[in-house]
Amino acid sequence: MFLKINTDHSRFRQIIRGKIKKDLRKFISRGEVFGRKGKDLVSIPMPSIDLPHFEFGDNKGRGIGAGDGQPGQTLGPGEGKEGEGKAGNAEGLHVREVDITLEELAQILGEELGLPRIEPKGDKQMSSMRDRYTGINNIGPQSLLHFKRTYKEALRRQIANGTYDPENPIVTPEGRDERFRTWKTKPVENNNAVIILIMDVSGSMGDEQKEIVRTESFWIDTWLRSQYKGIDTRYIVHDATAREVDRETFFSTRESGGTIISSAYQLADEIIQKHYPASEWNIYPFHFSDGDNWSADDTQKCFQILEQKLLPKSNVFCYGQVESLYGSGQFFRDLKEHFQSGKSAADRVIASRIPNKEAIYDSIKEFLNKGL
Fold it and tell me: Contacts from 77-85 at CB under 8 Å and sequence distance 24+?
């Protein structure tokens, strides 16, 4: 019975996985991934999936082809057009939430979008030594005394020599009963990475634009976390000035000032210099904006910061231009022209247009399909 349950559960998980892959574009574009549950789980809205089965009960005189009616006519409660009629007591259509791990979600994303595995740069891999408990020994320091194994040995000895009394079950360990944990020290590779999310929060970036950024950021974060052992995320918002914020503030802040993009790039470089030395970290800056910068001079300053500071330290720099209610600015076009194919570092600058939620799917693929 236990093996049968495991088989059925595995089959059900495969059905769910297939449904998610089939509807992945819809899940991404509509943001249909419910909030994280704990550290490693998310919930996916899934129409009810019932495996074929028999149900016993009174069919109240209805059988196959019994009674009056017309082809295509619905049977049972809930007839009529949606939104019409009086309140009823019939059960409605429910959407079921299916829990799935972030690791599974990342695998599905990689398979469906054909994303290559990321190969961290050789000098960005940090190795550390980690102790792992691997066995039990009869000698060792008292700090590693294994109490459970010690008392089991004492109980075994007392039963063997006939001194154990079930009516008075006192177990007294002796020196020969003591058991200690043993360990081995092994090198562990920690491929550390940091995602630096930068967002324009000037007045032209509305709630819909922020929702696009939030959705795309979730999927980018999910994929990168599947590729690295340890990962940090830092958040920068900017209008005419830039500042670092927490995650909640990042997705809820709205300002009304102008836009000076270089302030954000300068702050990103300061954070990297202070906390993430390029010799030890894989660095991924992502910038989202409507592309409306203050001046052409500041745009040139942005390119200067990118070429001299950010790009030499980063694995890749990604820019996503979200179309606002007022249209899109010039920054996307200028960035593409400046870092055109064949120019130094052009392969590490990826620019993507995101005019609406339906474009998120293709934008994610543009950003991640090089495996950098």
Answer: none
Q: Is the dihedral of CA 341, 343, 349, 353 positive or negative?
A: negative
Q: Answer whether 259's CB lies under 8 Å from 291's CB.
A: no
The boundaries of the domain holding residue 17 are 1-50+96-114
Query: Please, which residues have CB within 8 angstroms of residue 148's CB and are 6 or more apart in sequence?
Result: none
For the whole model, what pTM was predicted? 0.65
Quick one: 345 and 266 in the same domain?
yes
- The CA distance from 211 to 207, in Å, is 6
Per residue in 170-210, pLDDT tens?
A: 898 988 999 998 877 765 555 688 999 999 998 778 788 88
| Each residue's pLDDT tens digit, 294-339 | 899 999 999 999 999 999 999 999 999 998 777 678 999 999 999 9
Domain match, 282 and 236 both: yes
C-alpha distances (whole Å) from 30 to each of 45, 114, 201, 208 are 11, 21, 22, 11
CB–CB of 202/331 below 8 Å?
Answer: no
